[in-house]
Amino acid sequence: MRITEARVVVTCPGRNFVTLKIVTEDGVTGVGDATLNGRELAVAAYLDDHVVPLLAGRDASRIEDTWQYLYRGAYWRRGPVTMTAIAAVDTALWDIKGKVAGLPVYQLLGGRSREGVTVYGHANAEDVDGVLDEVAHYSGLGYRAVRVQTGVPGLASTYGVGGDRMFYEPADAAVPTENVWSTSRYLQHVPTVFRRVREEFGPRLRLLHDAHHRLTPIEAARLGSSLEPYDLTWIEDPVPAELQSGYRLIRQHTTTPVAVGEVFNSVWDCKQLIEEQLVDYIRATVVHAGGITHLRRIFDHAALHDVRSGSHGATDLSPVCMAAALQLDISIPNFGLQEYMRHTPETDAVFPHTYRYEGGYLHPSQEPGLGVDIDEERAAAFPYRPAQLPVNRLEDGTVHHW
Ligand code: GCO
Ligand code: MG
To answer: Do 254 and 286 reside in the same domain of the chain?
Structure first.
């Protein structure tokens, strides 16, 4: 079954998404997400200029061979742009394989290992009272796990807070917005928030927090130990992901579990953290870590070391990525949690899908393939708009991690 065509669709139904659609000689189509927030056109160009010309005439059934061909064959390996482009091809080929087999992709991955995919939502607000309302809202929707982020007193803006609460979107300007950050204000504030949330909601609700790469290892160790009384499921990205040995120091000081990986692109980025058991959850995604084929490899490696999955699921990952993520989440033995930020109705209309939320779980589509598509006519009505993620500065003006 030969590939006859592959096209890259860039659309902006409220935010930018890049999608690859592959068509076979029998008219079977498959889709893959290729969105890299703030760098969308780099991946679109990589696909258009360097990948699409190689696809025509290839056998669509040879997923592994195509993955190796694009990874090894490029010589210049890894990195977010390359791995996102490979992921899009890989995801689209799994979609095609499922459709040809007449099975949802998770059946090809070994079938269901659980009844549903436990998700966590985002409770974001400027202050503690606001965040208590948001946690109540998610808990009312049936969520069993909630990520809690609030504004920090004395700082004008904070990661994770702002805009529309159900549809948080940080990539908000063509030239990056600048935020101001203070680690000391943050470290003093966060434990007070979780104390209130636990007092209000009791011990059962799972609570999570994202430090978004901003701390040094010893600061992260302090955050972890100050949050121990509130029994968090994880603190996420406590230090910049490049600093893998820094996780050893965090581990020496706290039993608060650690999650990392949304900016990782391959098993090589995860290897040390997994093998030394320096993290508890690995949060790599289908779209940024080489597709279903490679993310499965990462999760299998993690399973050997009792590390669980906790895949990134922000709104900058399209419903195509979510549909693919759920196929893996439902099938792997070491699933942990799946992040779920709702997409806007405009985005849902551009990407019709049949995965569904019910009572704290997402359920993958039962249709052959991934159960998601792109409506190219609707997509064309939303042209690309330049939008970048913010830049962070310390109070004295020094550029810091965002
Ligand atoms: C998360 C992430 C996001 C990222 C965003 C960047 O845990 O959901 O940290 O909020 O900032 O996906 O593109
Ligand atoms: Mg995060």
So the answer is: yes
Asked if the structure places residue 392 within a domain, the reply is no
Judgement on whether residues 171 and 292 belong to the same structural domain of the protein? yes
Q: Which ligand is nearest to the CA of 171?
A: 1
pLDDT higher than 70, residue 178 = yes
CB 76 within 8 A of CB 265: no
Nearest CA residue ID for atom 10, ligand 1: 314
Q: Would the CB of 40 count as within 6 Å of ligand 1? A: no
CA distance 208 to 211: 10
Count Cα neighbours of 386 within 13 Å in the Cβ-side half-sphere: 5
Same domain? 26 vs 154? no
| Position in ligand 1 atom list of the atom nearest CA 168 | 10
Claim to verify: residue 178 and residue 315 sit in the same structural domain: yes
Does 395 reside within a domain?
no
Instruction: Give the model confidence (pLDDT) of 127-158 as tens digits.
Output: 999 999 999 999 999 999 999 999 999 999 88
Q: For residue 340, report the distance from its CA to the centre of ligand 1, in Å.
A: 11
Which residue's CA is the nearest one to ligand 1's atom 9?
212
Q: Give the list of residues 6+ apart from residue 83 with CB closer than 8 angstroms, or none.
A: 265, 266, 288, 289, 290, 294
CA of 305 relative to ligand 1 center, distance in Å: 26
154 and 242 part of one domain: yes
Q: For residue 49, give its domain range.
A: 3-104
Q: Is the pLDDT at 165 greater than 70, yes or no?
A: no
> Which residues, 6+ apart, have CB-to-CB distance to 148 below 8 Å?
123, 131, 135, 193, 194, 197, 207, 208, 209
**pLDDT interval class at 169 (50, 70, 90):** confident
Ligand 2 centroid from CA 210, angstroms: 6
- Residue 34 reports pLDDT greater than 70: yes
* Structural domains in the chain (count): 2
Per-residue model confidence as pLDDT tens digits over 302-334: 999 999 999 999 999 999 999 999 999 999 999
Q: For ligand 1, is residue 103 a contact (CB within 6 Å)?
A: no
- In a domain? residue 148: yes
| Residue 38 and residue 123 share a domain | no
Kindly give the distance from the C-alpha atom of residue 29 to the centroid of ligand 2, in angstroms, as a whole number: 32
pLDDT of residue 108: 98
Of all ligands present, the nearest one to the C-alpha of 318 is 1
The reply to whether 114 falls in a domain is yes
